[in-house]
Amino acid sequence: TIVEAVSMFKIGTMSHDDSKTLEWFTDVMKKQYGGDEGVPKLEFLSKDVETPGEDEIATGDVCSLQVEIERTHAENFTKQKLALCQKQGIPPQVAMQTYREGWWIMIRARRIGDIKDGDGKDAPPLEDESEKEGTPSQLGKTADDSVSKLFDEATKERFEKETEENRLLCAWPFIVSNVAQKRGKVGIKFLAPDRPGKYEFLVAVKSQEFLGADQDFVVVKDVLDKEEVERKQREEEDDNEEEDGDGNQGKEEPKKTK
């Protein structure tokens, strides 16, 4: 990816995943930043995908990936930077202001099945959305698809042959500008898939500064049909209105006393 190319350019290597290159880079980090704790790494203390303010995720929702991150190398990096400032006679606050550590979070989705019904059985198979007009696999086949007009036929063909799970839902960068920051929370918004089902949200975390720091994790979630969710909400509202109506029948207003 471009992110990996940036890290290779900054460090000056010809590979980002070669075992010898990774071993060399790890040794350099250990020597420069004081052992294993000086090797750049992110730990994810919590991770979840949700629709903010809702109990479930529905098709077309603006979802949010919420993660709490710990930079395990923060303390060792800070000590080394301060020592370097003292050695060079540079005010620490000046040197710290120039620190930048870039990371990217990329999100994809893979549909792994239908949602279980209330009895724990598989719900009836859903209609294959890929055959409908206007879906990503039908790029360029609808008259109102203005985006497809930007691509030539070869590009459209490659896009249609690509599997759904390889399409990015979101690619989001975040920059750490405080070398001493140990923990932080990151929230990334993206659109939920437009087909209901059980999904694996495939999250890749990539560094544009370090080698061997990339990570992947999966969050499994059900994505409900938006029309079904709205229908249930309307039914609940109708039921509440009926209950209110029944509850008020036969009741007399209290008489006012003079």
Automatic annotation (TrEMBL):
Residues 116-147, 228-258 are annotated as: Disordered. One of its GO terms (biological process) is SRP-dependent cotranslational protein targeting to membrane. GO terms for cellular component: Sec62/Sec63 complex. It comes from the Eukaryota. Residues 236-246 have a biased composition (Acidic residues). This is SEC63 domain-containing protein. One of its GO terms (molecular function) is protein transmembrane transporter activity. Residues 249-258 have a biased composition (Basic and acidic residues). Signal peptide: none annotated. PANTHER family: SEC63 DOMAIN-CONTAINING (PTHR24075), TRANSLOCATION PROTEIN SEC63 HOMOLOG (PTHR24075:SF0). It comes from Pseudictyota dubia.
